[in-house]
Amino acid sequence: MYLKTHTSDGTLLIAICDRELIGQTFSDGLLTLEVSEFFYRGEIASSSDIRDALEHAMVANLVGERSVGHALEGGFIIEENILIIDGIPHAQMATAASLPVNASGATDCDRT
Predict the structure, then answer these.
(1) pTM above 0.90, yes or no
(2) Residue 10 — pLDDT band, cuts 50, 70, 90?
(3) Rounded to a whole number, what is the distance in angstroms from the first to the last CA of the chain?
(4) How far apart are alpha carbons 107 and 111 in whole angstroms?
(5) Fewer Cβ atoms within 10 A, N terminus or C terminus of the chain?
(6) Do 40 and 15 form a contact (C-beta atoms < 8 A)?
(7) At a CB cut-off of 8 Å and minimum separation 6, what does 57 contact?
(8) Which domains does the chain have, with CATH numbers?
């Protein structure tokens, strides 16, 4: 798997993908997923590297069976949030600290 870190305004975002998916684009007619080298190609990472990165990340983008599977097994994402685009699993993770807060103090994910 590849692991790449991006930092923007103090937010740590990680991109993780199965190595064989780099440079490919997947589409199911409604959604298109581009696994670009710029965004996803980082260091080759082990399962423990992936787990450590997920523990520290505020946001994560995951593509591929192994990458998404590690996040699922570690409890970082739930099955209901996994999209399948042209047969390829894709998921995103965001911690509460990374979500925008509105004027009432609620995150965009809060339900009332």
Answers:
(1) no
(2) confident
(3) 39
(4) 9
(5) C
(6) yes
(7) 5, 12, 13, 14, 93, 95
(8) 2-98 (3.30.1860.10)
